[in-house]
Amino acid sequence: MGSVKLVICDLDGTLIDTESLVLEVARGVLAQHGRALTPEALAASAGRRPLEAWQATVDALGLTEASAQQLYDESEALLKERWQSAQLMPGAGRLLFHLHHCGVRVGLATSTPRATMERKLSAPAAQGLRGIFQVTHCGDEVRHGKPAPDCFRAAAAKLGAAPEDCLVIEDAPSGVQAAAAAGMRVVVVPSLPDRDAYPPAHPNAASGCVEVLPSLYDFHPERYGLPPFADTLAHGVVPVEPPWRLKGTVVKGFGRGSKELGVPTANLDSESLQGTLAEMVTGIFSAWASVGPARPDGSLTPVYECAMSIGWNPFYKNEKKTAEPWLLHDFDADFYGEELRLVVVGYIRPERNFDSLEALVARIHEDAAATHEALRSPRLSAAAADPLLQPQRIAVLAPP
Fold first, then answer.
1. Any idea where the Riboflavin kinase domain is (predicted)?
2. Are strands 16-17 and 105-109 parallel, antiparallel or unpaired?
3. Which residues are part of the catalytic machinery?
4. Total number of domains in the chain
5. Contact call for residues 341 and 268 (beta carbons, < 8 A)
6. Does residue 288 sit in the same domain as residue 365?
7. Are residues 312 and 164 in the same domain?
């Protein structure tokens, strides 16, 4: 395959995390009509133009008490107030600014109407993206929305790019189908948990799905003849910028960290992290950590290196998404019930399954070595001084 000359990105769920906002509003709107958003309805609506997405939802649910237009009107009124809080998807800013800095042409092809796209790109987290796109094409500017190829063909035509010279980055099945129909290669970063909703990857294909990635942290531009990232650290660790900050209570876990793996991981209360975990991509990360209350003498709370997994742990087939940090320090006692604070600064690798327990243990120790080296780089070491890692002292007032 030839080198890519134009990268065309989808917007929602690929570059900007508007999907969580849309799902929250959609569930609320449907609840007012006595209905729930099913996985089938979600899969049918993903990636489509808003009104068409609601029609797909109505059809999937067999909804008769409200029309797609009514549901669209109700949801849009609520979403207008929320676009300003949209955040970039993990790795999106890194990729876009890298391509722009290297002179690679970047386009945007979205099902979103132009007026709504402008509101989304005016969110504080997304404002820096405007100058990157050399072409934008929106859902209300084509006759047929995704899964039809119109928006991708139009974006490429504006810049005179042939389909075989384009690479599309998409998250939704309808967008993948649209890009394939346009004769373009597609890198898929799925937003739906059901991987069967996506076609298998064929790396050498002239069009269609060529790669499926857990997140944009796993994208390697050089595979497509594009300039490689310049910020990758030792062991392939990718800086997480801005860092993720989370804290939670240490609870008893599955009891396998120390017993089976020889790795004493701390398990965080999933309920206290529910909202935070839902927004985090899965994988293995490097972090700075501290645990316990502020010291009575006012001295700084120790900060430790930490390797951690976020996800479902394929080897053990967890049913619930968890965060399992391994503080790289020998402690004299456990710290159940204590507050654990984490500043996540590096992405090591995606989650994967292993053929044996021994292979898993060996890889965990490799991740620890990668963490140890990466956290010593100037780019990641400064986060050890993050204020989150120092708990607030509670003032005790003397009785009158």
1. 243-376
2. unpaired
3. 10, 12, 324
4. 3
5. no
6. yes
7. no
